[in-house]
Backbone:
């Protein structure tokens, strides 16, 4: 379970799954989801899973180098995940289409590089459906 | 906690091919069939173009994924709601859509239409009843 | 419990706010986020629709996205409420389900 600071008495705590369908910077979707996740965690809610789909898989790149005066979206997610032990899942089918690979997958596919940040894990679409089943609310952030 | 059956509704509002949303939404729908939940689909706004008849992609080089909609019935996904007003606004009728069907196991496997024409107001009611709405 | 609808695109560019307004029930809540916050401004071509929606729906706008784009409470239609991210979280928790009009 996540930390429960900031619980409001009389408010019921919930489990949320967040679905992020757009990549970083091009759309605000990932930023909005991040701010929502932070606010939900501050209130004591649980983020059951953050699922990255469509171009949203690009949020998981460990190779992005944004300008120093801008936010680093991937690192922001990674830090939040570390603090709250978030389960951040990248859809394998969407990731493979877009050249997003972790080391295991790169080995399996015979590719010479991998680019998934270690704060994220690659798994199947079933994880999204399971998130919808296990959570009180599923919320989509997209274009 | 919530291990009962949930109502999942996938709302398709975008045209196919111009963006990948229709194809990748269909992939989620097919996976969801394995979880024994109550699954329905909505085609409204430009989403109605996803199930248009006679899609031919030979010359565009796009992958024609429209045949996959015909497989939904085999996965027990047979509630495909099409918004009447969206069809009319686009000059379409049911004849412009693929004949999507399923075999009803409770009725001696009779072949029945999966497409259910609904009004905008009926659609609002249906959305309201869902546990999980995933739209794209 | 009623439903929460979120809209994130400007009504001057996309049809999603209109779709949401025509497919949401009385008593539901509509939250404008990201570029959709400009739909809450006074004097626009969609202002009449929003004013009508306020009469029987709970219409909210994400304040930080409004401020980010250079607008404040003084610029928006009477009856539209401003919420912060904590308020966004409360809206999700208080409604039975959420539909994002993308």
Residues:
């Amino acid at each position: 379970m996540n930390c429960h600071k900031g619980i409001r008495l009389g408010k019921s705590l919930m489990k949320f799954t967040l679905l992020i369908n757009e990549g970083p910077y091009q759309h605000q979707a990932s930023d909005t989801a991040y701010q929502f996740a932070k606010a939900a965690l501050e209130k004591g809610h649980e983020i059951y899973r953050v699922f990255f789909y469509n171009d949203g898989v690009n949020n998981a790149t460990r190779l992005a180098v944004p300008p120093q005066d801008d936010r680093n979206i991937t690192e922001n997610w990674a830090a939040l995940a570390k603090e709250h032990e978030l389960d951040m899942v990248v859809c394998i089918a969407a990731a493979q289409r877009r050249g997003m690979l972790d080391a295991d997958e790169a080995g399996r596919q015979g590719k010479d590089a991998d680019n998934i940040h270690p704060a994220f894990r690659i798994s199947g679409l079933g994880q999204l459906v399971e998130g919808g089943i296990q959570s009180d609310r599923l919320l989509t952030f997209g274009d | 906690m919530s291990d009962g059956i949930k109502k999942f509704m996938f709302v398709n509002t975008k045209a196919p091919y111009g963006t990948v949303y229709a194809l990748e939404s269909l992939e989620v729908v097919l996976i969801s069939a394995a979880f024994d939940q109550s699954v329905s689909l909505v085609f409204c706004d430009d989403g109605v173009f996803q199930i248009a008849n006679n899609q031919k992609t030979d010359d565009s080089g796009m992958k024609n994924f429209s045949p996959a909609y015909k497989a939904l019935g085999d996965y027990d996904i047979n509630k495909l709601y099409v918004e009447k007003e969206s069809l009319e606004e686009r000059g379409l009728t049911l004849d412009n859509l693929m004949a999507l069907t399923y075999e009803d196991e409770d009725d001696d496997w009779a072949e029945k239409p999966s497409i259910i024409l609904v009004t905008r107001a009926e659609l609002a009611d249906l959305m309201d009843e869902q546990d999980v709405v995933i739209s794209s | 419990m009623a439903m929460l609808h979120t809209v994130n695109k400007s009504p001057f560019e996309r049809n999603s706010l209109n779709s949401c307004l025509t497919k949401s029930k009385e008593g539901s809540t509509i939250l404008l986020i990201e570029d959709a916050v400009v739909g809450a401004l006074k004097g626009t071509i969609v202002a009449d629709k929003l004013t009508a929606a306020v009469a029987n729906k709970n219409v909210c706008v994400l304040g930080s996205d409004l401020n980010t784009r250079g607008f404040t409470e003084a610029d928006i239609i009477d009856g539209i409420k401003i919420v912060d991210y904590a308020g966004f979280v409360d809206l999700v928790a208080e409604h039975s389900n959420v539909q994002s009009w993308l």
In short: The radius of gyration of chain B is 15 Å. Helices of chain B lie at 21-32, 67-70, 84-89, 120-128.
